[in-house]
Amino acid sequence: MNRSINLVIPLLIAALTATAWWLLNQPSEEPPWPNRIQGFSFAPMRADDDPSLKKFPSVEDIDADLALLEGRAHAVRTYTVEDTLAEIPRLAAAHDLNVTLGAWIGAEPAANETEIKRLAEVLNEGHRNLVRVIVGNESILRRDLPVSELIGYLDRVRKLTWLPVSTAEPWHVWLKYPKLVEHVDFITVHLLPYWEGLPVDQAVDYAVSRYNELKEAYPKKPIVIGEVGWPSNGRRNRGAEPSPTNQTRFLRRFLARAEAENYIYYVMEAFDQPWKAKTEGATGNYWGVYNANRQAKFEFSQPVVRIPQWRELAGLSVVMGVLLLVFLYRDSATLAKRGKGFLALVTYAISTAAVWIVYDYTRQYMTPATAIVGVLLLIGGIGVIVLLMAEAHEWAESIWLNKWRRPFPLRTVPDEQLPFVSVHVPAYNEPPELLCATLDALAALDYPRFEVLVIDNNTKDPKVWEPVQAHCETLGERFRFFHVDPLAGYKAGALNFALRQTDPAAEVIAVIDADYLVIPTWLRHLVPGFADPEVAIVQAPQDYRDADQNAFKAMCMAEYRGFFHLGMVTRNERNAIIQHGTMTMIRRQTLDEVDGWAEWCITEDAELGLRLFEAGHKALYIPCTYGRGLMPDTFADFQKQRYRWAYGAVRILLRHRRELLGLRKTALTAGQRYHFVAGWLPWFADGFNLLFNFAALGWSVAMVMFPDTITPPYLTVALVPLVLFVFKMSKSLVLYRRRVTATLRQSLAAGLAGLALSHTISRAMFGGLVTGKLGFFRTPKMAEAPAVVRALADTREEGLFAFAFLLAAGLVLLRDDAYMLDVRIWVAVLVVQSIPYLASVLVSLVSAWQRLPADLVGVMSEMNGQRLSGVQPVSREG
């Protein structure tokens, strides 16, 4: 049955995927392209040509282009007579093509004089295929010169030739300057509805209405449509979407209308112009009917399909989805049908989006810069896919498991069969009253045979450690106190020292932090887990008792709970938990076999757990509260704690990279490798997100400084951070509400606290990659709350980033093209990227205001195993 489900669900989702591609690519009938059109705007630049750099096509290239257009158009329109382009009239005559000759008029008077002189020379050559002359192209629109100066050039040229003379401008310029109309023999109008944001279905009617408006305003002047067209790629301009399909639809519809109305027109344009990207932005080089390789970009008579290659792309997305799903389904025997369906849906959505983004990106003309960016985006895209799949997998397993594979039923074991336990309590400079309370709780344990070793390492002030020593003496011989100064190795050094002092009869080592109050049944309930000889670790979650003090601590507790009630639970299913150094028990024999705790590692607990897995041992995680400690008092301390955890994770992955990648033989299973790599992947994502943020700010600065040449990043690429943010936030809220059983306020508070740590984690990621030495950050307890000024100072980096992003978003919105979709999407990206930094500042301020009541968030209840199949509820009374 399970195998059939694994086959049926992917097939159904694959069928839906293929159907979606099919529905989006239904052919539509459009008027056929005429056998011979009136004319093309003609700029014969090849991919390597660039008139702005004085690199012009050869005469042979121009002749080849005119030969391609022979029989397909009556005429061509040129824009300048510079260099080899002055040869166009002569070459066009041999291909039966008339020429509307253009002269470029710009902002430099000397260059204009040179152009007029060359124009006169070409006119004097007496080419009989010249039909009209156009002096200047959108010179007024670009504000290169005033109308009076352009009129002067027009009057001079009209004296040079008997041919009709005009200039070319958009419709609104002609309406605005009637005086200009008096100095031309005909009106050359540009009708480009894309630039006015018109949807393609309205574009032809709009162009015709503007033509008629000019005709009504100047009934005695002939009108020539100097440019009419639609781009096949580039930036979406409000309702105007550039695409090969829309280019085809617009041109074929317009040409049918133009033929019926007997317009004189020039299609904009014959060939794509890659060089225009640096002067007209991402759209300027995609107006050609033929691409830069002189290949037709669309069908001239067949029904129009949005993506002609949709069948291949659909097949590729299905194959990619199947491969990803095979990986996710390898170990899904206990996953319910809904969970498998969810994974299939997410997988096919991701694969389809990936295929589409790659296809869309490769439709642009590749330069060395775009190719490098493309490779970087591909690498980043693979990381995004892996991250999304890991998040989706945890989502599915947290909600839709039929049953837990590794339940932990409580066992009643006679006292004489319970092993001797040595409880180790490392301490450094801890308040005496706090540590004494911890020892009192241990003294109340309902367990027949145990000892407690307190190792105070490197505390300098005798007033701190001597009261604890005296308290141990009052608790009896079970409690032994050691003050060691100096002692290297930080916490790991203290634990290794304790291991050397442990009673030889001890079979189990238990470790708790100095601030933890355990319940009496802790050992009695969990030690029986070692009855399985393969079990080396039995772990209970970290939990906290001070969440009711203020809103900040209630937020922190909600944030912690996600890992201990979600991540650790799903990891336990594949024997891949992350051991943490409190509320943990380790089999003494296995601890000796792996040479104890690693003193090189700042997160010695997680590192030990991984070494034990590599040696083939098992671990058990029981998601029930058996002891509760204290949380950091300030956001600064919260940051230090998370920095240490993230930094240690990087160092562990680097040290064990060969084992995790399977390059060195160990007993690690595929599931364990997956969880240790994928489980820490979100933290690495935060690290790489920092690189993205620097790049985003740099790009935004360039957009503000060079608005005419720097456009927003590619639209489909810019959408990825937004989708990733929404997916992660949705997952967090859903899982907290469904599995952690948190209120909406607690779920939002947990998400806010988690976001607030993003920058800290990103710094830790790079710190761990760059250096292998970090001083041990002890997490302070019962510290004084900082003032508001101190809270802001603690998040100065985050505050600067937030300010930079919001400032960049505001400045980008001041661009003239701020109405365009890609600009607005980019502004949304900048705002979203500022949210984690704003969260840091806000949470730090909340931590400063200790009087904010915890009720604003709500204090989460203890973790109770009755919510998990096979785990009995735990009472504090035992």
Describe this structure in words.
- The chain has 878 residues and is of the alpha/beta class.
- It has 3 domains: 2-23 and 308-396; 35-283, Glycosidases (TIM Barrel, Alpha-Beta Barrel), CATH 3.20.20; 542-583 and 626-862, no CATH class.
- It is 50% helix and 10% strand.
- The chain has 30 helices and 17 strands.
- The strands form 3 sheets. The protein has an 8-stranded parallel β-sheet. Strands 11-10-9-12-15-14-16 form a 7-stranded mixed β-sheet, sandwiched between helices. A two-stranded antiparallel sheet has the order 13-17.
- Helix 2 (59-69) links the parallel strand 1 (37-41) and strand 2 (73-77).
- The two termini are 42 Å apart.
Adjacency order of strands in the biggest sheet: 1-2-3-4-5-6-7-8
Overall mean pLDDT score? Answer: 92
Oligomer: single chain
Please outline the major beta sheet: 8 strands, parallel
- Computed CA radius of gyration, to the nearest angstrom: 36 Å
Q: Beta-strand level of the residues, as a percent range? A: 5-15%
Total number of helices:
30
N→C terminal distance: 42 Å
How many β-strand runs?
Answer: 17
Low-confidence parts lasting 5 or more residues at pLDDT below 50? 775-783, 866-878
- Report the principal-axis shape: elongated
By secondary-structure content and strand pairing, the structural class works out as alpha/beta
EC number: 2.4.1.336
Keywords: Glycosyltransferase, Hydrolase, Magnesium, Membrane, Transferase, Transmembrane, Transmembrane helix
Subcellular location: Membrane
Transmembrane segments: 310-329, 341-359, 365-390, 683-704, 710-727, 748-770, 799-814, 826-849
